[in-house]
Write a structure and sequence with these properties.
This protein is 48% helix and 15% strand. It is α+β, with helices and mostly antiparallel strands. The strands form two sheets. The chain has a three-stranded antiparallel sheet with strand order 3-4-5.
């Protein structure tokens, strides 16, 4: 009789150690839900990182253009293509390599503005991937479309100040 009781006790203990099918399905669905949320957020991080790079590139080009203006009392009619050296008269190098768009490598849009009122200005334009970036509207307010510069509503703009 002792042997029968111990076998029943052993069988009951083995049953208590396992998981039911419903418990496994609940855990798997929770893990799947969390993985889906994480993956969707990681994709947005890459876009925002490229947008930050675009803004930084435009700021660097702006500084080079300001140095060019200080030396020549005017802005260039165009800037070199992405990857090329930006230099002025007398061999002065303003940028060793002009940056391009991080996802395509294409050059940023550049507009030299000679307004009828005699002021000279420029616009650098990049299209951001994150269309809801608050920097878009603030940059367009700071650099309005005038004197020949045109850009779309999702463009980030840098001007001479």
């Amino acid at each position: 009789m002792k042997q029968v009781l111990s076998i029943k006790y052993l069988v009951l203990r083995v049953k208590d150690k396992g998981f039911t099918l419903i418990e496994l399905l609940v855990v798997i669905s929770i893990i799947g839900l969390l993985a889906g949320l994480i993956i969707s957020n990681v994709a947005g991080v890459r876009e925002r990182a490229r947008d930050v790079q675009r803004k930084s590139d435009l700021d660097q080009i702006k500084k080079a253009l300001r140095m060019y203006y200080n030396d020549n009392n005017s802005y260039p009619t165009s800037i070199p293509t992405a990857g090329s050296q930006f230099s002025g008269t007398g061999g002065m190098v303003y940028m060793k390599s002009v940056p391009g768009d991080p996802s395509t490598g294409s050059p940023y849009s550049y507009y030299q503005n000679n307004c009828s009122n005699g002021t000279e200005d420029f616009r650098l334009v990049a299209t951001l991937e994150n269309k809801s970036d608050p920097g878009i509207s603030s940059s367009q307010k700071k650099c309005p479309q005038d004197c020949g510069a045109t850009y779309s509503t999702d463009s980030y703009v840098v001007c001479a100040d």
